[in-house]
Design goal:
Elements lengths: L1 E5 L4 H12 L3 E6 L5 H4 L4 E4 L20 E4 L9 H19 L3 E5 L11 H14 L5 E4 L4 E2 L6 H9 L5 E4 L5 E2 L2 E2 H13 L7 E2 L7 E2 H12 L6 E4 L1 H14 L6 H9 L5 H8 L6 H7 L4 H9 L2 H23 L1 H11 L6 H20 L4 H22 L14 H14 L4
Parallel strand pairs: 1-2, 1-4, 2-3, 4-5, 5-6, 6-11, 7-10, 8-13
Antiparallel strand pairs: 9-12
Helix pairs in contact: 1-6, 3-4, 5-7, 5-12, 8-9, 13-15, 13-17, 14-15, 16-17
Length: about 425
Amino acid sequence: MRILLLGAGGFIGRHIMSELIAHGHDVIAVVRRDAGLSGAFPNARFRSMDLAAAIDPSAWTEPLRGVDIVINAAGVLRGSDMVPVHVAMPGALHEAALAAGVRRVVLISAISARPDVDTDYAQSKLEGEAALKASGVPWTILRPSLVYGDGSYGGTSLLRGMAGLPWRIPLPSRGDFPFTPIHAADLARSVRQICEDAAFTGQILEPVGPETLSLADLLARYRAWLGFGQARFLHIPIPAMRLFGRIGDVMSSGPVSTNSLVQLMAGNAGSSADFAKAMGWMPRSLGKALAARPAEVQDRWHARLFFLAPAIKAVLVFLWLASALLGFVYGRAATEALAVAAGLAGSWVSPLQMGSSLLDLAVAALLLFDKNRRFITLAQLVVVAGYTIMIGTLLPHLWADPFGALLKNIPILALILVHGVIGDRR
């Protein structure tokens, strides 16, 4: 079959794409950016689209040409793109799919898509489900619990990061929030099976694994798998966790957000027996999956580095803000010395002082609200290297400053590079 897969670049989407290709299906993968995916999946055809902007049915006419099944695995946990991606875009897609004669749309929703879960994520997912049901297109809706795999993304990355923390693992409240986790490969297998069998049309299924575990159980198992010893917990009151969530909201890419916290507390458990009966087979358990694939050094690196990424970002934002503020208030003398060394007239001092401070402020803002990590990493490298070369050339005695006025820029450049690598969570 020819299958159009939305969200093909995500954690779940990649597993679904691999499963479909392995079973001979013709996959058209819709991604925001290729980012090397076409090299990793040479047997798929890629189409770059901004799903948040594809809210007119005409945008889907060409992508749907000759398509038998649409799998919508696109999802946004936070940000302004959430409603367009979960509601407006699918509405346009469904209208175009109906006109194109698509056999079925398979929607990957969430087990928390319920009226009682008060987050914009859950409610927009629920709205997306309702839109699909009312579209007239044959449909199947899947509401998976926590999805884990050999790699990780989102919630499972957070679990690994928490499990890798030294001394004690912070645990929201008593950590008794339930999950029925399913391996990403088993979810992908079920999606492929559902696409191939029209009997699943009109059904809502909850893909889950064979056991329900608490958050504390999950963290203990991941810590043991990583080889970090017995899990010891530090219980954090929910009000404090909400504060951390708000900080994550402001940082835009923090490890915890208000949505993720509410989704966590909402309950993510499903019926293992019902799903196994519907599919005709039982997914693997977390214990068996972890035992079958021992943790490697890269897994331990990821766990240990997970919380360092936002910490490094916070430090860099502070550095640029402090540099801007100090430049505005105390930078005149240093700027005068630089202007004299460069042979510039005194009239250049104020513009140079204000300009460099404003540049630092702009870099801080870009870093704080960055959506293109490559750009902001390059921008920081260029600015720091530019400052270092210019000042080091005009005022070479600063290289010998015992407080490392210029030498400190070398480890800062390395820190920027590290953040540019580990800050990318996809």
